[in-house]
């Protein structure tokens, strides 16, 4: 009977924590440029940081202009120094609004797909 009294609370604690662990997956924690940033100069690259390591072969990002044309240099890669960072280089961008679309696979097997925008202001 004493053993059962100890096991029941321990079992309940495990059950309470299990759904939270099962639902955990990679989330975007930082981006440069930041979401909705208004920049006075074109950024040299877009960098995205996640809270979990990414699978390089299945992690993609692209930057498009207002017309939907891809404008990045198509060199997207997970950083060899930090497997939670995904980056893509940019040429000098004209003033306008840009969309960063990304789809990443974290090492826990979850796919995350989203977008963010930034604007390069006209310097006049």
Features:
124 residues, Immunoglobulin-like, 4-stranded mixed β-sheet, 8 strands, single chain, elongated, 4-stranded antiparallel β-sheet, alpha+beta
Describe this structure in words.
The protein has a single domain, classed as Immunoglobulin-like (Sandwich), CATH 2.60.40.1220. The chain has 1 helix and 8 strands; from the N terminus they run H-E-E-E-E-E-E-E-E. It has 124 residues and is an alpha+beta fold. The protein has one helix spanning 2-23, and strands spanning 28-32, 37-39, 45-50, 60-64, 77-78, 85-89, 96-105, 111-120.
Helical amount:
10-25%
How many E strands?
8
Biggest pleated sheet: 4 strands, antiparallel
Rounded to an integer, what's the Rg over CA atoms?
A: 20 Å
Order of SSEs: HEEEEEEEE
Structural class: alpha+beta
The top level CATH class name: Mainly Beta
CATH architecture: Sandwich
Distance between the termini: 80 Å
- Could you tell me the CATH topology label: Immunoglobulin-like
Question: Can you tell me the overall shape?
Answer: elongated
Helices, by number, come to 1
């Amino acid at each position: 009977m004493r053993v059962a009294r100890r096991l029941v609370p321990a079992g309940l604690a495990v059950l309470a924590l299990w759904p939270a662990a099962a639902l955990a997956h990679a989330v975007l924690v930082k981006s440069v440029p930041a979401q909705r940033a208004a920049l006075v100069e074109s950024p040299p690259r877009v960098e995205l940081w996640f809270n979990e390591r990414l699978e390089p072969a299945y992690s993609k990002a692209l930057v498009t202009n207002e017309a939907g044309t891809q404008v990045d240099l198509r060199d997207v890669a997970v950083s060899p120094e930090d497997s939670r960072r995904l980056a893509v280089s940019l040429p000098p961008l004209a003033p306008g609004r840009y969309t960063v679309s990304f789809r990443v696979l974290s090492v826990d097997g979850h796919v995350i797909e989203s977008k963010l925008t930034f604007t390069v202001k006209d310097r006049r």
